Amino acid sequence: MFFSIIIPLYNRPQEIKELLESLTQQTYTSFEVLVVEDGSKHDAKAIVEGFKNQLDIHYFYKENAGQGFARNYGFERAKGDYFIFFDSDCIIPHNYLELLRDHFYQEYLDAYGGPDEAHSSFTAVQKAISYGMTSFLTTGGIRSKQKNAGGKFHPRSFNMGISREVWEKTGGFKLTRMGEDMDLSIRIHQMGFKIALVPEAKVYHKRRTSFKQFWKQIHSFGRTRVDLFLRYPDTLKAVHLLPVAFTAFLILVFILNLFSISLAALGNLLLLLYIMLIFFDSLFKNKSLNVAFLSIIASFIQLTAYGFGFVQDYCKRVLLKQDINNQY
């Protein structure tokens, strides 16, 4: 099987080098790499060309239109039997493609997604963010599960692949920015293709480098869920409302404490228990007091930023029927 790895890139030349270095170490070598620069002001052409003696690599520059359409641009130029796309802030384990090929020998999939985790080289903040996005103590825990409270498994574009047939039948991405991967996954399911999680096909995903960036990203995820609800009403599940419920609970506890209402003690106790669960679970997994502490912040951001984003767009687009142009 010949794989085409497609990487959209926008003003992140500092990230692509580490990703490409990890691809040079793959134990399965039947693949090409297509880097699609999406109108970047700070391009990575020189970095990419530095790998021409180590990889079958191709660099393209196009006008900015978002990562979804950048991937489509790569699909149209790819030679592979199967298209894989990574985010530029990922590091790929050396046996990723070999494990994927072996999985396809046992069980072929028309589309797949893989999990992510933190690499040992990540900063404490990045490890904490990874914890918040993957822990069962937050809604991030459903993202790398085949069967979950969110319904069918939907791959995410930081670690996802589709067959050439799927691309030809679906036309690739119809949305260009936030939610484009979920939209594509939903359409793949609707067309009856076989789509599943490949647990062994993991990547190390840096995500955001600061809590401020992380808040902005997760807030847009909450807004995106409303957009998907309007497009596909049956995809909204109870689990998607948990961040809203948690955010409302935090506000309620704050009000109870502000006015010294007796129920405040119960609310404070529940919050303390939740905080302790996060701290000790992260400490067990990361073996770091610093990361464990930061994981509390990351988990609260993961829930509240999503909750506020969801409520914001639900009120505007569903309750008030405003036709707004989502700029994520």
Main traits of this protein?
7-stranded mixed β-sheet; Glyco_trans_2-like; membrane; 328 residues; Nucleotide-diphossugar_trans; alpha/beta; Spore Coat Polysaccharide Biosynthesis Protein SpsA, Chain A
Give the count of helical stretches.
11
Report the radius of gyration as a whole number of Å. Answer: 20 Å
CATH class of the domain at 3-122 and 146-207: Alpha Beta
Strand order of the largest sheet: 3-2-1-4-8-6-9
How far the N terminus sits from the C terminus, by CA atoms, comes to 36 Å
Largest sheet report: 7 strands, mixed
Q: Helicity, in percent?
A: 40-55%
Protein name: Glycosyltransferase
GO molecular function, one term: transferase activity
Pfam families: Glycos_transf_2
Transmembrane segments: 238-259, 265-284, 291-311
Can you tell me about this structure?
The strands form 2 sheets. A 7-stranded mixed beta sheet has the order 3-2-1-4-8-6-9. The protein contains 11 helices and 10 strands. Helices cover 48% and strands 13% of the residues. It has a domain at 3-122 and 146-207: Spore Coat Polysaccharide Biosynthesis Protein SpsA, Chain A (Alpha-Beta Complex). It is α/β, with parallel strands linked by helices and 328 residues long.
